[in-house]
Amino acid sequence: MNVIRNYLYNAGYQLLLVILPLVSITYVSRVLTNTGVGLNAYTNSIITYFVLFGSLGINLYGNRQIAYLRENQLEMSKAFWELVILRILAVLIAFVAFFVYLPFSKNPMLMFFQSLNLLAVIFDISWFYMGIEDFKKTVTRNTLVKILSLAAIFIFVKSKNDLGLYVIILGMGTFLGNLTFWPFIKDLIVKIPYKQLHPFRHLRPSIALFIPQVAISVYAVLNKTMLGKMTGTVNSGYYNNADTLIKTVLAVATATGTVMLPHVANAFANGEKKRINQMLYDSFDFISFLTVAMMFGIAGLSLNLGTLVFGSGFEPVGMAVLLESPVIILIGWSNAIGTQFLLPTNRTREYTASVIIGAIVNIVLNFPLIYFWGLVGAMLATVISEVCVTGYQLWTIRKTVSYRKLFQNFWKYLVAGLVMFIPIFKINNTVNSTIVSILLEVVLGIVVYFVMILLLRPTIVNKARDILNKRKK
Protein backbone atom coordinates (compact mmCIF):
# COMPACT_ATOMS: atom_id res chain seq x y z
CA MET A 1 0.00 0.00 0.00
CA ASN A 2 2.97 2.31 0.63
CA VAL A 3 4.00 1.96 -3.04
CA ILE A 4 0.46 2.77 -4.19
CA ARG A 5 0.32 5.82 -1.93
CA ASN A 6 3.70 7.03 -3.20
CA TYR A 7 2.57 6.44 -6.78
CA LEU A 8 -0.54 8.55 -6.22
CA TYR A 9 1.51 11.33 -4.64
CA ASN A 10 4.10 11.30 -7.40
CA ALA A 11 1.55 10.87 -10.20
CA GLY A 12 -0.32 13.85 -8.82
CA TYR A 13 2.86 15.87 -8.58
CA GLN A 14 4.14 14.96 -12.05
CA LEU A 15 0.72 15.73 -13.45
CA LEU A 16 0.80 19.07 -11.66
CA LEU A 17 4.22 19.86 -13.13
CA VAL A 18 2.77 19.38 -16.61
CA ILE A 19 -0.81 20.61 -16.14
CA LEU A 20 0.15 23.98 -14.65
CA PRO A 21 2.46 24.84 -17.58
CA LEU A 22 -0.29 23.55 -19.90
CA VAL A 23 -2.83 25.88 -18.27
CA SER A 24 -0.39 28.78 -18.43
CA ILE A 25 0.59 28.07 -22.05
CA THR A 26 -3.08 27.94 -23.02
CA TYR A 27 -3.27 31.53 -21.76
CA VAL A 28 0.11 32.81 -22.94
CA SER A 29 -0.32 31.28 -26.41
CA ARG A 30 -3.11 33.80 -26.91
CA VAL A 31 -1.21 36.66 -25.25
CA LEU A 32 2.31 36.11 -26.54
CA THR A 33 1.13 34.63 -29.90
CA ASN A 34 2.88 31.79 -31.71
CA THR A 35 6.01 33.95 -32.17
CA GLY A 36 6.49 34.50 -28.43
CA VAL A 37 5.72 30.87 -27.57
CA GLY A 38 8.21 29.76 -30.21
CA LEU A 39 10.96 32.03 -28.85
CA ASN A 40 10.41 30.72 -25.33
CA ALA A 41 10.48 27.10 -26.52
CA TYR A 42 13.66 27.71 -28.54
CA THR A 43 15.61 29.55 -25.81
CA ASN A 44 14.42 27.07 -23.18
CA SER A 45 15.72 24.22 -25.32
CA ILE A 46 19.15 25.91 -25.27
CA ILE A 47 19.28 26.45 -21.50
CA THR A 48 18.21 22.83 -21.02
CA TYR A 49 21.63 21.69 -22.25
CA PHE A 50 23.36 23.75 -19.53
CA VAL A 51 20.85 22.54 -16.92
CA LEU A 52 21.57 18.99 -17.99
CA PHE A 53 25.31 19.44 -17.47
CA GLY A 54 24.74 21.10 -14.09
CA SER A 55 22.51 18.22 -13.00
CA LEU A 56 25.28 15.72 -13.84
CA GLY A 57 23.03 12.66 -13.62
CA ILE A 58 22.60 13.15 -9.88
CA ASN A 59 18.80 12.97 -9.87
CA LEU A 60 18.83 9.33 -10.98
CA TYR A 61 22.07 8.35 -9.27
CA GLY A 62 21.20 10.14 -6.02
CA ASN A 63 17.75 8.55 -5.92
CA ARG A 64 19.28 5.09 -6.29
CA GLN A 65 22.22 5.71 -3.93
CA ILE A 66 20.02 7.04 -1.12
CA ALA A 67 17.74 4.01 -1.57
CA TYR A 68 20.77 1.73 -1.13
CA LEU A 69 21.93 3.51 2.04
CA ARG A 70 18.75 4.70 3.71
CA GLU A 71 18.99 2.12 6.51
CA ASN A 72 22.33 3.64 7.58
CA GLN A 73 21.82 7.31 8.48
CA LEU A 74 25.51 8.13 8.72
CA GLU A 75 26.42 6.72 5.30
CA MET A 76 23.27 8.20 3.79
CA SER A 77 24.16 11.63 5.19
CA LYS A 78 27.69 11.40 3.78
CA ALA A 79 26.33 10.52 0.35
CA PHE A 80 23.83 13.39 0.52
CA TRP A 81 26.38 16.09 1.32
CA GLU A 82 28.88 14.72 -1.17
CA LEU A 83 26.30 14.80 -3.96
CA VAL A 84 25.22 18.34 -3.02
CA ILE A 85 28.83 19.53 -3.25
CA LEU A 86 29.37 17.72 -6.55
CA ARG A 87 26.26 19.33 -8.02
CA ILE A 88 27.30 22.82 -6.90
CA LEU A 89 30.64 22.40 -8.67
CA ALA A 90 28.94 21.11 -11.81
CA VAL A 91 26.52 24.06 -11.88
CA LEU A 92 29.36 26.56 -11.44
CA ILE A 93 31.16 25.05 -14.45
CA ALA A 94 27.89 25.12 -16.39
CA PHE A 95 27.48 28.83 -15.59
CA VAL A 96 30.99 29.58 -16.88
CA ALA A 97 30.13 27.81 -20.15
CA PHE A 98 26.79 29.64 -20.29
CA PHE A 99 28.37 33.11 -19.96
CA VAL A 100 30.87 32.20 -22.68
CA TYR A 101 27.93 31.28 -24.94
CA LEU A 102 25.70 34.25 -23.99
CA PRO A 103 27.29 36.95 -26.25
CA PHE A 104 26.81 34.70 -29.26
CA SER A 105 23.11 34.12 -28.58
CA LYS A 106 20.50 35.72 -30.85
CA ASN A 107 18.38 36.54 -27.79
CA PRO A 108 20.92 37.28 -25.01
CA MET A 109 18.46 38.98 -22.63
CA LEU A 110 15.91 36.18 -22.92
CA MET A 111 18.68 33.61 -22.50
CA PHE A 112 19.87 35.44 -19.36
CA PHE A 113 16.35 35.20 -17.91
CA GLN A 114 16.30 31.48 -18.77
CA SER A 115 19.45 30.99 -16.67
CA LEU A 116 17.26 31.09 -13.53
CA ASN A 117 16.50 27.47 -14.39
CA LEU A 118 20.22 26.68 -14.13
CA LEU A 119 20.55 28.44 -10.77
CA ALA A 120 17.60 26.42 -9.46
CA VAL A 121 19.49 23.16 -10.09
CA ILE A 122 21.81 23.85 -7.12
CA PHE A 123 18.91 23.63 -4.68
CA ASP A 124 17.16 20.62 -6.19
CA ILE A 125 17.34 17.77 -3.64
CA SER A 126 14.12 16.06 -4.69
CA TRP A 127 16.26 12.98 -5.44
CA PHE A 128 16.90 12.57 -1.70
CA TYR A 129 13.20 12.43 -0.78
CA MET A 130 12.57 10.03 -3.64
CA GLY A 131 15.38 7.79 -2.39
CA ILE A 132 13.80 7.52 1.06
CA GLU A 133 10.37 7.14 -0.60
CA ASP A 134 8.95 10.26 1.06
CA PHE A 135 6.96 11.65 -1.84
CA LYS A 136 4.50 13.60 0.26
CA LYS A 137 6.96 16.42 0.99
CA THR A 138 8.01 16.79 -2.64
CA VAL A 139 4.37 17.16 -3.59
CA THR A 140 2.70 19.25 -0.91
CA ARG A 141 5.42 21.88 -0.42
CA ASN A 142 6.14 22.44 -4.08
CA THR A 143 2.51 22.55 -5.16
CA LEU A 144 1.83 25.91 -3.51
CA VAL A 145 4.81 27.51 -5.26
CA LYS A 146 3.68 26.20 -8.65
CA ILE A 147 0.15 27.52 -8.13
CA LEU A 148 1.52 30.93 -7.09
CA SER A 149 3.65 30.98 -10.25
CA LEU A 150 0.56 30.29 -12.34
CA ALA A 151 -1.30 33.10 -10.59
CA ALA A 152 1.62 35.46 -11.27
CA ILE A 153 1.47 34.64 -14.99
CA PHE A 154 -2.22 35.52 -15.16
CA ILE A 155 -1.67 38.74 -13.18
CA PHE A 156 1.47 40.13 -14.81
CA VAL A 157 1.70 38.69 -18.36
CA LYS A 158 -0.71 40.87 -20.32
CA SER A 159 0.78 41.45 -23.78
CA LYS A 160 3.27 40.01 -26.26
CA ASN A 161 5.87 42.42 -24.81
CA ASP A 162 5.82 40.48 -21.52
CA LEU A 163 7.72 37.45 -22.86
CA GLY A 164 10.74 38.18 -20.66
CA LEU A 165 8.55 38.50 -17.58
CA TYR A 166 6.92 35.17 -18.41
CA VAL A 167 10.32 33.46 -18.58
CA ILE A 168 11.37 35.03 -15.26
CA ILE A 169 8.19 33.85 -13.52
CA LEU A 170 8.70 30.28 -14.75
CA GLY A 171 12.35 30.29 -13.65
CA MET A 172 11.55 31.76 -10.23
CA GLY A 173 8.82 29.15 -9.77
CA THR A 174 11.36 26.36 -10.28
CA PHE A 175 13.93 28.10 -8.04
CA LEU A 176 11.53 28.70 -5.12
CA GLY A 177 10.01 25.24 -5.52
CA ASN A 178 13.44 23.67 -5.05
CA LEU A 179 14.08 25.80 -1.96
CA THR A 180 11.01 24.29 -0.28
CA PHE A 181 12.80 20.93 -0.02
CA TRP A 182 15.47 22.23 2.38
CA PRO A 183 13.65 23.08 5.67
CA PHE A 184 12.96 19.39 6.41
CA ILE A 185 16.40 18.03 5.63
CA LYS A 186 17.80 18.73 9.11
CA ASP A 187 15.48 16.12 10.63
CA LEU A 188 16.55 13.40 8.20
CA ILE A 189 20.33 13.61 7.98
CA VAL A 190 23.24 14.44 10.28
CA LYS A 191 26.06 16.93 9.86
CA ILE A 192 29.31 15.52 8.52
CA PRO A 193 32.70 17.25 8.89
CA TYR A 194 33.94 18.45 5.53
CA LYS A 195 37.20 16.49 5.89
CA GLN A 196 35.22 13.23 5.92
CA LEU A 197 33.46 14.04 2.65
CA HIS A 198 34.75 12.75 -0.69
CA PRO A 199 32.37 14.08 -3.36
CA PHE A 200 34.46 12.97 -6.33
CA ARG A 201 33.97 9.30 -5.50
CA HIS A 202 30.48 9.78 -6.95
CA LEU A 203 31.72 11.44 -10.15
CA ARG A 204 32.19 8.32 -12.27
CA PRO A 205 28.82 6.66 -11.41
CA SER A 206 27.05 10.03 -11.78
CA ILE A 207 28.58 10.50 -15.22
CA ALA A 208 27.49 6.96 -16.09
CA LEU A 209 23.90 8.14 -15.59
CA PHE A 210 24.66 11.59 -17.01
CA ILE A 211 25.44 10.08 -20.41
CA PRO A 212 21.97 8.54 -20.90
CA GLN A 213 20.36 11.77 -19.69
CA VAL A 214 22.31 13.65 -22.37
CA ALA A 215 21.07 11.16 -24.93
CA ILE A 216 17.48 11.47 -23.67
CA SER A 217 17.67 15.25 -23.91
CA VAL A 218 18.76 14.96 -27.53
CA TYR A 219 15.45 13.60 -28.71
CA ALA A 220 13.49 15.48 -26.03
CA VAL A 221 14.96 18.92 -26.73
CA LEU A 222 17.02 18.79 -29.93
CA ASN A 223 13.90 18.61 -32.09
CA LYS A 224 12.85 22.07 -30.89
CA THR A 225 16.36 23.43 -31.43
CA MET A 226 16.65 21.95 -34.94
CA LEU A 227 13.14 23.03 -35.92
CA GLY A 228 14.00 26.56 -34.79
CA LYS A 229 17.22 26.56 -36.81
CA MET A 230 15.89 24.85 -39.95
CA THR A 231 12.28 26.06 -40.23
CA GLY A 232 11.86 29.00 -37.81
CA THR A 233 11.03 29.32 -34.11
CA VAL A 234 7.26 29.20 -34.74
CA ASN A 235 7.55 25.47 -35.45
CA SER A 236 9.50 25.08 -32.20
CA GLY A 237 6.43 26.47 -30.48
CA TYR A 238 4.11 24.05 -32.29
CA TYR A 239 6.33 21.12 -31.32
CA ASN A 240 6.57 22.31 -27.72
CA ASN A 241 2.79 22.68 -27.38
CA ALA A 242 2.09 19.27 -28.89
CA ASP A 243 4.76 17.68 -26.72
CA THR A 244 3.29 19.41 -23.64
CA LEU A 245 -0.11 17.84 -24.34
CA ILE A 246 1.47 14.40 -24.77
CA LYS A 247 3.60 14.76 -21.63
CA THR A 248 0.53 15.84 -19.64
CA VAL A 249 -1.09 12.52 -20.42
CA LEU A 250 2.14 10.57 -20.02
CA ALA A 251 2.95 11.98 -16.55
CA VAL A 252 0.45 9.64 -14.88
CA ALA A 253 2.21 6.57 -16.31
CA THR A 254 5.86 7.64 -15.90
CA ALA A 255 5.26 8.52 -12.24
CA THR A 256 5.61 4.79 -11.51
CA GLY A 257 9.27 4.94 -12.52
CA THR A 258 10.21 7.50 -9.87
CA VAL A 259 8.30 5.56 -7.23
CA MET A 260 9.53 2.09 -8.15
CA LEU A 261 13.23 2.94 -8.67
CA PRO A 262 14.09 3.28 -4.94
CA HIS A 263 11.72 0.41 -4.09
CA VAL A 264 13.42 -1.96 -6.56
CA ALA A 265 16.88 -0.64 -5.64
CA ASN A 266 16.25 -1.50 -1.99
CA ALA A 267 15.01 -4.99 -2.96
CA PHE A 268 18.11 -5.44 -5.15
CA ALA A 269 20.37 -4.45 -2.24
CA ASN A 270 18.68 -7.21 -0.22
CA GLY A 271 19.07 -9.82 -2.99
CA GLU A 272 15.33 -10.29 -3.71
CA LYS A 273 15.58 -11.17 -7.42
CA LYS A 274 12.25 -12.99 -7.80
CA ARG A 275 10.42 -10.11 -6.15
CA ILE A 276 12.12 -7.66 -8.52
CA ASN A 277 10.89 -9.59 -11.59
CA GLN A 278 7.36 -9.76 -10.22
CA MET A 279 7.40 -6.01 -9.60
CA LEU A 280 8.39 -5.50 -13.25
CA TYR A 281 5.54 -7.72 -14.50
CA ASP A 282 3.00 -5.89 -12.34
CA SER A 283 4.31 -2.43 -13.21
CA PHE A 284 4.59 -3.17 -16.95
CA ASP A 285 1.03 -4.49 -17.05
CA PHE A 286 -0.31 -1.48 -15.15
CA ILE A 287 1.52 0.91 -17.47
CA SER A 288 0.17 -0.93 -20.54
CA PHE A 289 -3.35 -0.64 -19.12
CA LEU A 290 -2.92 3.13 -18.68
CA THR A 291 -0.94 4.07 -21.77
CA VAL A 292 -3.08 2.24 -24.33
CA ALA A 293 -6.13 4.14 -23.08
CA MET A 294 -4.18 7.40 -23.03
CA MET A 295 -2.78 6.97 -26.53
CA PHE A 296 -6.10 6.16 -28.19
CA GLY A 297 -7.89 8.78 -26.11
CA ILE A 298 -5.67 11.73 -27.03
CA ALA A 299 -5.38 10.50 -30.64
CA GLY A 300 -9.15 10.52 -30.92
CA LEU A 301 -9.33 14.11 -29.66
CA SER A 302 -6.16 15.37 -31.33
CA LEU A 303 -7.08 17.11 -34.58
CA ASN A 304 -9.03 19.94 -32.96
CA LEU A 305 -6.90 20.33 -29.84
CA GLY A 306 -4.45 22.87 -31.27
CA THR A 307 -7.01 25.60 -31.92
CA LEU A 308 -9.22 24.72 -28.97
CA VAL A 309 -6.46 24.73 -26.35
CA PHE A 310 -4.01 27.29 -27.73
CA GLY A 311 -6.15 29.51 -29.96
CA SER A 312 -5.99 30.72 -33.54
CA GLY A 313 -2.68 30.15 -35.29
CA PHE A 314 -1.97 26.81 -33.60
CA GLU A 315 -3.83 24.52 -36.01
CA PRO A 316 -0.70 22.41 -36.82
CA VAL A 317 -0.50 21.29 -33.18
CA GLY A 318 -3.46 18.90 -33.66
CA MET A 319 -1.79 16.79 -36.36
CA ALA A 320 1.47 16.87 -34.39
CA VAL A 321 -0.32 15.40 -31.35
CA LEU A 322 -1.87 12.64 -33.48
CA LEU A 323 1.52 11.69 -34.92
CA GLU A 324 3.28 11.75 -31.55
CA SER A 325 0.62 9.83 -29.61
CA PRO A 326 2.28 6.36 -30.00
CA VAL A 327 5.18 7.54 -27.81
CA ILE A 328 2.82 7.37 -24.83
CA ILE A 329 2.96 3.58 -24.94
CA LEU A 330 6.62 3.44 -25.97
CA ILE A 331 7.88 5.79 -23.24
CA GLY A 332 5.65 4.06 -20.71
CA TRP A 333 7.27 0.71 -21.54
CA SER A 334 10.83 2.07 -21.63
CA ASN A 335 10.18 3.76 -18.29
CA ALA A 336 9.12 0.43 -16.79
CA ILE A 337 12.11 -1.45 -18.17
CA GLY A 338 14.77 1.24 -17.92
CA THR A 339 13.95 3.33 -14.85
CA GLN A 340 12.21 0.62 -12.84
CA PHE A 341 14.38 -2.39 -13.72
CA LEU A 342 17.71 -1.72 -15.44
CA LEU A 343 18.80 1.27 -13.35
CA PRO A 344 17.94 0.01 -9.85
CA THR A 345 19.51 -3.39 -10.60
CA ASN A 346 22.73 -1.64 -11.65
CA ARG A 347 22.43 -2.51 -15.36
CA THR A 348 23.32 1.04 -16.31
CA ARG A 349 25.27 0.00 -19.42
CA GLU A 350 22.22 -1.49 -21.14
CA TYR A 351 20.09 1.51 -20.19
CA THR A 352 22.73 3.91 -21.50
CA ALA A 353 23.07 1.98 -24.77
CA SER A 354 19.32 2.12 -25.37
CA VAL A 355 19.02 5.88 -25.06
CA ILE A 356 22.20 6.50 -27.05
CA ILE A 357 20.74 4.40 -29.87
CA GLY A 358 17.56 6.48 -29.68
CA ALA A 359 19.54 9.73 -29.75
CA ILE A 360 21.62 8.67 -32.76
CA VAL A 361 18.52 7.57 -34.67
CA ASN A 362 16.82 10.85 -33.80
CA ILE A 363 19.74 12.99 -35.00
CA VAL A 364 20.20 11.02 -38.22
CA LEU A 365 16.49 11.14 -39.08
CA ASN A 366 15.94 14.76 -38.03
CA PHE A 367 17.99 16.25 -40.85
CA PRO A 368 16.13 14.70 -43.81
CA LEU A 369 12.69 14.49 -42.15
CA ILE A 370 12.67 18.09 -40.87
CA TYR A 371 14.12 19.33 -44.16
CA PHE A 372 11.37 17.69 -46.25
CA TRP A 373 8.41 17.71 -43.84
CA GLY A 374 9.21 20.23 -41.10
CA LEU A 375 7.08 19.72 -37.99
CA VAL A 376 5.64 16.42 -39.25
CA GLY A 377 9.14 15.13 -39.88
CA ALA A 378 10.25 16.01 -36.34
CA MET A 379 7.30 14.09 -34.90
CA LEU A 380 8.05 11.03 -37.04
CA ALA A 381 11.70 11.12 -35.96
CA THR A 382 10.61 11.26 -32.31
CA VAL A 383 8.34 8.22 -32.65
CA ILE A 384 10.92 6.14 -34.54
CA SER A 385 13.63 6.93 -31.99
CA GLU A 386 11.35 5.82 -29.13
CA VAL A 387 10.65 2.57 -31.00
CA CYS A 388 14.41 1.94 -31.10
CA VAL A 389 14.88 2.72 -27.39
CA THR A 390 12.06 0.44 -26.25
CA GLY A 391 12.93 -2.30 -28.72
CA TYR A 392 16.55 -2.45 -27.56
CA GLN A 393 15.56 -2.50 -23.88
CA LEU A 394 13.16 -5.38 -24.51
CA TRP A 395 15.95 -7.25 -26.27
CA THR A 396 18.38 -6.73 -23.34
CA ILE A 397 16.03 -8.36 -20.81
CA ARG A 398 15.12 -11.34 -23.01
CA LYS A 399 17.08 -13.78 -20.79
CA THR A 400 15.92 -12.26 -17.51
CA VAL A 401 12.15 -12.03 -17.84
CA SER A 402 9.28 -13.77 -19.61
CA TYR A 403 7.81 -11.88 -22.58
CA ARG A 404 4.65 -13.92 -22.18
CA LYS A 405 4.13 -12.52 -18.69
CA LEU A 406 4.98 -8.99 -19.80
CA PHE A 407 2.50 -8.93 -22.69
CA GLN A 408 -0.15 -11.42 -21.60
CA ASN A 409 -2.85 -8.75 -21.29
CA PHE A 410 -1.67 -6.28 -23.92
CA TRP A 411 -3.96 -7.54 -26.70
CA LYS A 412 -6.96 -7.01 -24.42
CA TYR A 413 -5.94 -3.42 -23.72
CA LEU A 414 -5.35 -2.89 -27.45
CA VAL A 415 -8.83 -4.15 -28.37
CA ALA A 416 -10.42 -1.98 -25.65
CA GLY A 417 -8.44 1.04 -26.86
CA LEU A 418 -9.46 0.60 -30.51
CA VAL A 419 -13.14 0.21 -29.57
CA MET A 420 -12.85 3.43 -27.55
CA PHE A 421 -10.98 5.34 -30.29
CA ILE A 422 -13.50 4.84 -33.10
CA PRO A 423 -16.52 6.69 -31.63
CA ILE A 424 -14.38 9.44 -30.06
CA PHE A 425 -12.51 10.19 -33.31
CA LYS A 426 -15.74 10.19 -35.32
CA ILE A 427 -17.60 12.47 -32.89
CA ASN A 428 -14.63 14.82 -32.49
CA ASN A 429 -14.39 15.36 -36.24
CA THR A 430 -18.15 15.67 -36.76
CA VAL A 431 -19.29 18.17 -34.12
CA ASN A 432 -17.86 21.60 -33.36
CA SER A 433 -15.30 21.08 -30.60
CA THR A 434 -15.79 23.01 -27.37
CA ILE A 435 -14.49 22.46 -23.84
CA VAL A 436 -17.82 20.85 -22.93
CA SER A 437 -17.83 18.50 -25.95
CA ILE A 438 -14.22 17.46 -25.25
CA LEU A 439 -15.06 16.67 -21.62
CA LEU A 440 -18.09 14.62 -22.71
CA GLU A 441 -15.94 12.72 -25.20
CA VAL A 442 -13.36 12.02 -22.48
CA VAL A 443 -16.09 10.65 -20.19
CA LEU A 444 -17.45 8.53 -23.07
CA GLY A 445 -13.98 7.17 -23.77
CA ILE A 446 -13.38 6.24 -20.12
CA VAL A 447 -16.74 4.46 -19.90
CA VAL A 448 -16.20 2.52 -23.14
CA TYR A 449 -12.65 1.52 -22.17
CA PHE A 450 -13.62 0.30 -18.71
CA VAL A 451 -16.63 -1.60 -20.02
CA MET A 452 -14.37 -3.37 -22.51
CA ILE A 453 -11.84 -4.11 -19.76
CA LEU A 454 -14.56 -5.66 -17.60
CA LEU A 455 -15.72 -7.77 -20.54
CA LEU A 456 -12.21 -8.93 -21.52
CA ARG A 457 -11.13 -9.40 -17.87
CA PRO A 458 -7.33 -8.95 -17.93
CA THR A 459 -5.53 -9.95 -14.72
CA ILE A 460 -5.44 -6.33 -13.53
CA VAL A 461 -9.18 -6.61 -12.75
CA ASN A 462 -8.58 -9.35 -10.18
CA LYS A 463 -5.58 -7.51 -8.70
CA ALA A 464 -7.61 -4.34 -8.30
CA ARG A 465 -10.37 -6.30 -6.59
CA ASP A 466 -7.85 -7.91 -4.20
CA ILE A 467 -6.42 -4.50 -3.28
CA LEU A 468 -9.90 -3.12 -2.56
CA ASN A 469 -10.74 -6.15 -0.41
CA LYS A 470 -7.55 -5.68 1.61
CA ARG A 471 -8.39 -2.03 2.22
CA LYS A 472 -11.85 -2.95 3.47
CA LYS A 473 -10.30 -5.34 5.99
Automatic annotation (TrEMBL):
Pfam families the UniProt entry points to:
Polysacc_synt
Q: Which residues cross the membrane?
A: 7-29, 41-62, 83-104, 110-132, 163-185, 206-225, 245-265, 286-311, 317-343, 355-373, 410-428, 434-456
Membrane topology per record: Multi-pass membrane protein
- InterPro entries this protein is in? Poly_Biosynth_Transport (IPR050833), Polysacc_synth (IPR002797)
Keyword presence, Transmembrane: yes
Q: Where in the cell is it found?
A: Cell membrane
Query: What keywords sit in the KW lines?
Result: Cell membrane, Membrane, Transmembrane, Transmembrane helix
Instruction: Kindly list the GO CC terms recorded for this protein.
Output: plasma membrane
Return the PANTHER family for the record. Answer: O-ANTIGEN TRANSPORTER-RELATED (PTHR30250:SF11), PST FAMILY PREDICTED COLANIC ACID TRANSPORTER (PTHR30250)
Q: What is this protein called?
A: Oligosaccharide translocase
Organism of origin is: Liquorilactobacillus cacaonum DSM 21116
